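task queued by scheduler; priority normal; single chain, no ligands, no partner chains; default sampling; output format set to structure tokens
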Amino acid sequence: MTKVSFWLLGLVLGLSSCYYDNREDLYGSAGPCDTTAVSYTTHIKPLMDQQCVGCHGATAPSAGISLHDWASVKASVQGGRFVGSVDWQTGYSPMPKGGSKWTPCQISQLNAWVNKGMPQ
């Protein structure tokens, strides 16, 4: 009976260790969200590289949407569906597919970049 008890205890502990917490969801962002000097190079490109380029890179981009450089991201944003998809708005295909929604700060930075004319 003790082998079964140890096995069950190990199973319970093992399964409980699979719980995933997102630091930002638990504690908020590390600091205030800076949207004053947002540029493609500093803020948007790292997001594209991390969240988008895996599927929407230069070679064989998914759905024919390439997001590998400033010009292609700018063209996609001007097409009118990019911000709605990233912000998971109703009527838009939520992006990234199978991934996590961008943080409120990242979405605010994207909107600030768009509102400032999408500077490089």
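post-processing summary
- Helices lie at 2-16, 23-27, 40-52, 70-78, 82-86, 104-115.
- The chain has one domain: 34-120.
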